[in-house]
Specification:
Layout (H helix, E strand, L loop, with lengths): L7 E7 L5 E7 L3 E2 L1 H7 L6 E9 L2 E8 L4 E2 L6 E2 L2 E14 L2 E13 L9 E3 L17
Parallel strand pairs: 5-9
Antiparallel strand pairs: 1-2, 2-3, 4-5, 6-7, 8-9, 9-10
């Protein structure tokens, strides 16, 4: 990354939907988002919100992208949103520091009347699996 780690700054702007969009920049000028995605490629499937230090942990806030998802009960595709909630997913350490991803995911309605599930939580490919608390490792 080239610059002194203490000189990195996070710039936050709010997009039209009210979600904070950030850029991690060195010396206030050079975006290093591509470098972050090289270290944590599983984050390419989500919208990054912020990156913060919380003691010995790097906390990354992210949000799943809008779009249809398959019901975990019957497989039917739905984009009818019920609500959102935050999953706290542990990731591999980077530079000796633990990483936690606070991921806002959607709970969707299943539109199949024969399905036993009324709602289901979306999964983010390469990042989450049902009931898993750590990111997927391939």
């Amino acid at each position: 990354m080239g610059a002194d780690p203490d000189s990195y700054k996070i710039f936050v702007a709010v997009d039209r939907s009210g979600w904070a969009v950030t850029s991690l920049c060195s010396n206030g000028m050079l975006p290093v988002c591509d470098d972050v995605l090289k270290l944590l490629p599983q984050l390419s499937a989500v919208e990054l919100g912020s990156v913060e230090e919380s003691g010995e942990v790097v906390v990354i806030s992210a949000r799943s992208r809008a779009g249809p998802a398959a019901c975990t009960g019957c497989g039917r595709i739905s984009d009818w949103e019920h609500s959102r909630y935050v999953r706290h997913v542990a990731d591999e350490a980077v530079g000796g520091r633990a990483v936690r991803i606070d991921l806002s995911v959607r709970r969707l309605y299943c539109e199949n009347p024969a399905c036993p599930k009324t709602t289901f939580a979306e999964q983010v490919d390469g990042l989450t699996v049902r009931y898993q608390r750590r990111t997927c490792l391939d």
